């Protein structure tokens, strides 16, 4: 089964160390190779890494940005949505996708996880906030892909 045109949100920390960056890159790449459209918050860290992986795999990348300046976006986005809404843009991001993948992250990511669960969207957690009921925890990019395929079958 492929993920053709499935809208997958990849959320996470805006400042990522090498390990988290590479993990998010791999998630974006694997999902885009299967045809998924990758949505992020459009900035740096996990958002940039996932977008870069998807972009380099020839995927469609969408950034739902908190501000109103296109130059704030990471360079791996094909579609920019400039909201000028700050953190309120999280609602638009989560509402726009079918499944959410959280990679690491701080309170912004926690708010997005909560919104996704509130909207009955599947949430997959990779090295993110622990022990949240309803989050499906995995330990690798490959397991993220397997879990998404499981949700969609």
Describe it for me?
This protein has 153 residues and is an alpha/beta fold. The protein is built from 5 helices and 7 strands, in the order E-H-E-H-E-E-H-E-H-E-E-H. The protein has one domain (7-152): 3-Layer(aba) Sandwich (Rossmann fold). The chain is 39% helix and 21% strand. It has a 7-stranded parallel sheet with strand order 4-3-2-1-5-6-7, with helices on both faces. Helix 1 (18-33) runs parallel beside helix 5 (141-152). The longest helix has 16 residues, at 18-33. The model has no long low-confidence stretch (mean pLDDT 97).
Topology, please?
Layout (H helix, E strand, L loop, with lengths): L6 E6 L5 H16 L3 E4 L5 H11 L4 E5 L13 E4 L6 H8 L2 E5 L3 H12 L4 E4 L8 E4 L2 H12 L1
Features:
single chain; 153 residues; alpha/beta; Rossmann fold; seven-stranded parallel beta sheet; 5 helices; 7 strands
Question: Quick gist of this model?
Answer:
The chain has 153 residues and is an alpha/beta fold.
Highest-level CATH class: Alpha Beta
Q: What share of residues is helical? A: 25-40%
Rg, rounded, reads 13 Å
Mean pLDDT: 97
Task: Give helix and strand order, one letter per element, not per position.
Answer: EHEHEEHEHEEH
Question: What class, by secondary structure content?
Answer: alpha/beta
Q: Sheet bearing the most strands, described? A: 7 strands, parallel
Give the count of helical stretches. Answer: 5
List segments where confidence is low: pLDDT < 50 over at least 5 consecutive residues.
Answer: none
CATH architecture tag: 3-Layer(aba) Sandwich
Strand order of the largest sheet: 4-3-2-1-5-6-7
Looking at the structure, what is the overall shape?
A: globular
Instruction: Tell me the β content.
Output: 15-25%
Question: Alpha-carbon distance between the termini?
Answer: 8 Å
**What is the CATH topology assignment?**
Rossmann fold
- The total beta strand count reads 7
Q: Return the domain count.
A: 1
